[in-house]
Amino acid sequence: MSDHTPQLTTADGIPVADNQNSLTAGARGPVVIYDYVLQEKLGHFNRERIPERVVHAKGAGAFGTLTVTQDISKYTKAKLFSDVGKQTPVLARFSTVGGEKGSADAERDPRGFSLKFYTEEGNWDMVGNNTPVFFVRDAIKFPDFIHTQKRCPANNLKDAFPRWDYWSSSPESLHQVLILYSDRGIPKSHRHMNGYGSHTYSFVNVNNERVWVKFHFKTQQGIQNLTEKEAEAIKGTEPDHSTKDLCKAIEGGQYPRWTFYIQVMTEEQAQTHADNPFDLTKVWKHGDYPLIEVGTLELNRNPQNYFAEIEQAAFSPSAIVPGIGFSPDKVLMARVMSYADAHRYRLGVNYQQLPVNAPKCPFMHYQRDGLMALGNNGGSGPNYEPNSDPSTPKQSPEYSEPPFELGSVAVDRYDHREGNDDFTQAGDLYRLMEPDAKARLVDNLVNSATGLSHVSKEVQMRQLCQFFQADRDLGSRVSTALGLEIDPAVLKGSAHQSTDQPVAKPVDV
């Protein structure tokens, strides 16, 4: 072999001497079971296909940048918008909705328009469509609608009846139905269509003030569409025409671009808006809420490997960054849960560790194990929180968002410990015990295989504070068994004292 020829190996790095012939017993004999090269090749081949996306299975994608062209810092503290001229790497994926992975690009179907922004604060996924509205306003109807777009369970054929049977019974879908059957129902290519966040989202600025927003990406190539007749001809001759068009355009230096705009509505305006401003089947009129320019999206790099960078790409509305948030949109709130759940099924529980999905900024968490856990799997550090290790990640309250005011209640993260007495009933339990049971309890707490004698003094003292608050006698007994001297002056004000004679001098909490 030439010094310049790469050496073929197995996945374990073992050099392969012969990649043309199986190991057999004689020239005409059977294949032997220990041919590990054959076993690996066939075994991997049998497992090469992963489940296709339930929705948006057929798609194409590319990489590029978002360049900020206007200052919107008064609306959001998100750092990707912090400076005019700032650039953020982006992955885009375009797709049809109802077709399988091998279906034609020219179907009359909404188009997925999904973007992953690799920001310095984590990944922001804008998971949208080429339409500003959708067929449902409550996610409980989403599976029903999608079933009408898929193949009939009786004969595995697509049928017009289920969709119209459903739509004619679901008037909230009419707005999107008219778009689907209009001139814009079949985009000419992925480059020649707009993209929309469709949902209402929120922006929060440095003063913790919230506004509601909608996202718009207007194609700079101009909107172009196919007629029904043109689409039928293309499906028969070039079913992957949009995928090829995107690839060839970028290859030839004709980088597709979109202008990114937002619409902004204040919380006060939302309260008096004629329609529900969080209804996915409705738009905000541009005359009332004009488009505000944000930046330019440009796609300028094709994927090097489709499976690694596009098929394994996972987009979810749950991926947001500080300064961008959700709204009371019922469908959005369900998508936050369901999209990530779909990725865990399709790609595995560690899908966020795949290179195309991993953040480009530092990240630390307590998730461990599971299929395809990459890297050092969190090393030797704890996999729980709170913990006593100062080097492990801790929460950052400064990133808290203002609560959602929903009628008479506010949606917020409420401290479940505030106002709760976690000690009286525990102390009552101790005070109900017979003296010998109390002695065994103390011995178990201290000397059992998982007892306090096996942990640091810092943890012992922290736990003793809870024992003393439950019952002064309990705390005194445990501290004595641990050989710890407790300063009575530090522990004044105990509310509870067992009637049993304590084994250590009385100590107040």
Structure description:
This protein is of the alpha+beta class. It folds into 3 domains: about 20-50, no CATH class; about 60-355, Catalase core domain (Catalase HpII,  Chain A, domain 1), CATH 2.40.180; about 425-490, no CATH class. The protein contains 13 helices and 12 strands. The chain has helices at about 35-45, 140-150, 160-165, 175-180, 230-235, 240-250, 265-270, 305-310, 330-345, 425-430, 435-445, 455-470, 470-480, and strands at about 60-70, 85-95, 110-120, 120-130, 195, 200-205, 210-220, 255-265, 290-300, 325, 405, 410. The strands form 2 sheets. Strands 1, 2, 3, 4, 5, 6, 7, 8, 9 and 10 form a 10-stranded antiparallel beta sheet that branches. Strands 11-12 form a two-stranded antiparallel sheet. A hairpin with a 2-residue loop joins β11 and β12. α11 (about 435-445) crosses α13. The termini are far apart.
Draw up the topology in text.
Blueprint (H helix, E strand, L loop, with lengths): L35 H10 L13 E10 L18 E10 L14 E9 L2 E8 L12 H8 L10 H8 L6 H7 L14 E2 L4 E4 L5 E10 L8 H10 L3 H11 L5 E10 H6 L19 E10 L4 H6 L12 E2 L4 H17 L57 E3 L2 E3 L12 H9 L2 H13 L9 H14 L1 H11 L27
Antiparallel strand pairs: 1-2, 1-9, 2-3, 3-4, 5-7, 6-7, 6-10, 7-8, 8-9, 11-12
Helix pairs in contact: 2-3, 11-13, 12-13
